[in-house]
Design goal:
This protein is an alpha+beta fold. It has helices at about 25-35, 95-105, 185-190, 195-200, 210-225, 230-260, 265-285, 305-330, 335-340, 345-355, 355-360, 370, 375-380, 395-415, 470-480, 490-500, 500-505, and strands at about 5, 15, 40-50, 55-60, 65-75, 85, 110, 145-150, 160-165, 170-175, 440-445, 450-455, 465-470. It folds into 2 domains: about 1-115, 2-Layer Sandwich (Beta Polymerase, domain 2), CATH 3.30.460; about 195-470, Cytochrome-c3 Hydrogenase, chain B, CATH 1.10.645.10. The chain has 17 helices and 13 strands. A hairpin with a 4-residue loop joins strand 4 (about 55-60) and strand 5 (about 65-75).
Length: about 500
C-alpha cells in the first residue's frame, strides 16, 4: 500500500502528496501491520472535504525505524455502507473508529465497542446522551453492580465508573467519559489569533501544559512557509521545561500512591518536593505549571544565568531528597506487600490495546517517543534510554516513575551544565504565514505518555482543523483491565498508578 514516509523532525506534508487508497486496501495493510508489535497508530481521524466527502487520515508509527507513515481514504459523506471494522481484529483502533462514528455517522461492521467516546456538541446523533450510555451488563445471582461517579469526592474531574462484582472481586469495569467535553479541537479552527491557539493548547490538560503546547507549537513551526532553525538555547529550554513537568507530576503521583496506602512519610516528603519543583517553574516563567513558557519561534522567558543556577540548584536538591524517598519505598515490606502483584496488565494486553507511556513501559513494552521517534535535542544530543520494567503491576508503574524522576533531573543537569544563555533570545512570532493545504504533526512524550497534535491548513494557510490525541485515550482501557480479578478496594491504588486525564480524553 502507498504511504508518505516521514519522521518526527520533518516539515509539513502537502495534502496532495498523502496517498488516497481504497478502504479494502487500507484495511488489509493495516490489519497486517498492526499484527506486528513495531507498529501502532499515532492518530486516525476524519475531516470533511469540500466535495461532500470525508477523508480519513492515518498516522502509523514504526517504532523500529522511527518512521511515520501517512495515508488516507475517502468515503462519500452520506454513504451509509458499513466498513469492515479494524477494531474487531486490533483493539487499539477502538477510540478512533468510535470517534469517527460518533462525529460523522460512519458505521464499522463488527465493531465490538460501538459506543460514544466523548459526546461532542456536533455529534452525528444528538439523541445519544450520557443519560442513555449503553453500559455492559452481566446477569447472575451472585453478581452486583457498583456505580462510582460521575461526581467524585475532592477536587477531581467527572467520569462514570461501573463495576460488576462477585462479592468484593471485580469481574468487569466500564468507564464512561465525555462529561468534560469543551470543543477544544473546534476552538482551534474558530480563531485566527495564533496566541489564543497556543493558550488553548496549554489548557487541554492542566498537568501537561508544557507537553501539549510543545506538540502544537511543533506543528506550527513545521507549517511555516519560511522555516527557521531553532536555536540550541531555545531547544534546550523546551527540553528542560518538559523534564521539569515530568519531575513535578511523577513526584506528586508517588506521594498520592503513598497516601492511598497510608504511608504518610512518603506522602509528606513528596508533597514538599513537588512544591519545590513547581515553584522552580514559577520562578522561571511566573506560572507553576509552565503556562507561558512555550511559544512559536521563541520565548518570553529565556533562561538567564541566574535562572540556570536556580534551576540546577533546586533540581539537584530535589533529586537527592527524592532518591532517599525512593530507597525507603522499595525497602519497606509493607509498601511492597500492598503494591506488588496488584493491578497487573500484561505486555500482551498493552500491545493489544495500544497502551503508551510509563504504563506501557512498566509492562515491558517500549513505547517512548524520546527513544523511538525522537525530536529536538532528544534526536540530536540526548539519545534517551527508556526505563522499562516487565511485571506490569502497581509497583512496576511506581518504579518507572521513580527512575524517570532521577533521569529527568540528570537530563536537566546535563543540558544546563554547559548552557551559555544567548545574548539576545528569540522573541515569539505569532504572525508568520503557514503553508496552505498541508498537514503537520507534533509527537511529544509527555509525562503520561504519547501526545500527538495534527494541524491541517486550508488553501489560504489558515488552520482548518486540529486533531489531538492524549495518552489517556488508550490507557483508560488499561486501567479497566488492571482491576479485573482484583478486590474493589484495590481500585484507588490502581487508578492512582495510572493517573489518567479525564479532560485529555474528552477534549
Amino acid at each position: 500500500m502507498k504511504y508518505f514516509t516521514t519522521n518526527n523532525t520533518a516539515p509539513a506534508v502537502p495534502l496532495e502528496e498523502i496517498p488516497v487508497v481504497d478502504y479494502a486496501e487500507f484495511f488489509a495493510d493495516l490489519d497486517r501491520k498492526l499484527g506486528q508489535e513495531r507498529y501502532h497508530i499515532g492518530h486516525y481521524f476524519a475531516l470533511p472535504e469540500r466535495d461532500e466527502r470525508l477523508r480519513m487520515f492515518c498516522l502509523l508509527l514504526d517504532d523500529r525505524t522511527s518512521e511515520v507513515l501517512l495515508t488516507s481514504y475517502c468515503v462519500e459523506y452520506y454513504d451509509e455502507t458499513p466498513l469492515p471494522s479494524l477494531t474487531a481484529r486490533h483493539a487499539q483502533v477502538h477510540p478512533f473508529e468510535r470517534e469517527i462514528t460518533e462525529r460523522y455517522g460512519i458505521r464499522f461492521d463488527g465493531m465490538p465497542w460501538e459506543k460514544p467516546l466523548r459526546f461532542p456538541f456536533d455529534r452525528f446523533d444528538p439523541k445519544s446522551t450520557m443519560d442513555n450510555y449503553p453500559f455492559y451488563t452481566m446477569e447472575g445471582a451472585s453478581l452486583h453492580e457498583v456505580n462510582v461517579g460521575p461526581i467524585h469526592a475532592g477536587i477531581i474531574e467527572p467520569g462514570a465508573f461501573r463495576f460488576i462484582c462477585n462479592g468484593e472481586r471485580v469481574l468487569h469495569l466500564e468507564i464512561a467519559l465525555g462529561y468534560q467535553h469543551r470543543g477544544v479541537e473546534h476552538a482551534f479552527a474558530a480563531t485566527d489569533n495564533r496566541l489564543r491557539q497556543v493558550l488553548l493548547a496549554e489548557s487541554i490538560a492542566g498537568d501537561s501544559a508544557v507537553a501539549h503546547s510543545t506538540a502544537f507549537v511543533e506543528t506550527l513551526e513545521k507549517l511555516a512557509v519560511q522555516p527557521r532553525t531553532r536555536s540550541y538555547e531555545l531547544d534546550c529550554e523546551r527540553t528542560v521545561a518538559l523534564e521539569l513537568e515530568r519531575m513535578a507530576v511523577q513526584i506528586a503521583d508517588t506521594g498520592a500512591l503513598c497516601m492511598d496506602i497510608g504511608y504518610q512519610l512518603g506522602q509528606v516528603a513528596c508533597e514538599a518536593l513537588r512544591t519545590v519543583t513547581i515553584n522552580t517553574t514559577q520562578a522561571w516563567c511566573g506560572n507553576r505549571f509552565g503556562k507561558g513558557l512555550i511559544r512559536p519561534q521563541g520565548t518570553n522567558h529565556p533562561l538567564t544565568a541566574e535562572k540556570v543556577a536556580l534551576v540546577r540548584r533546586n533540581v539537584a536538591d530535589v533529586r537527592r531528597r527524592y532518591d532517599e524517598v525512593r530507597e525507603d519505598i522499595k525497602s519497606s515490606p509493607t509498601v511492597l506487600a500492598r503494591l506488588e502483584q496488584c493491578g497487573i496488565v500484561s505486555r500482551e494486553e498493552m500491545v493489544r490495546i495500544g497502551g503508551v507511556g510509563q504504563a506501557a513501559r512498566a509492562s515491558g513494552l517500549l513505547r517512548d517517543l524520546r527513544t523511538t521517534h525522537p525530536w529536538g535535542l532528544y534526536a540530536r544530543e540526548l539519545h534517551h534510554e527508556s526505563v522499562v520494567k516487565r511485571y506490569g503491576d502497581v509497583m512496576a508503574r511506581l518504579t518507572v516513575r521513580c527512575r524517570e524522576v532521577l533521569q529527568s533531573a540528570d537530563c536537566i543537569e546535563h543540558l544546563l551544565a554547559g548552557l551559555v544563555p544567548a545574548a539576545e533570545a528569540s522573541r515569539p512570532d505569532y504572525e508568520f504565514p503557514l503553508r496552505g493545504e498541508s498537514l503537520a504533526f507534533g509527537l511529544i512524550e509527555g509525562w503520561r505518555g504519547e501526545i500527538c497534535h495534527v494541524t491541517v491548513t486550508d488553501a489560504d494557510g489558515r488552520i482548518a482543523a486540529c486533531k489531538i490525541k492524549d495518552p489517556s485515550l488508550h490507557n483508560w482501557l488499561a486501567l479497566a483491565l488492571a482491576v479485573r480479578g482484583e478486590g474493589i478496594s484495590d481500585f484507588p491504588i490502581c487508578n492512582k498508578s495510572f493517573n489518567l486525564s479525564y479532560c485529555g480524553n474528552d477534549l
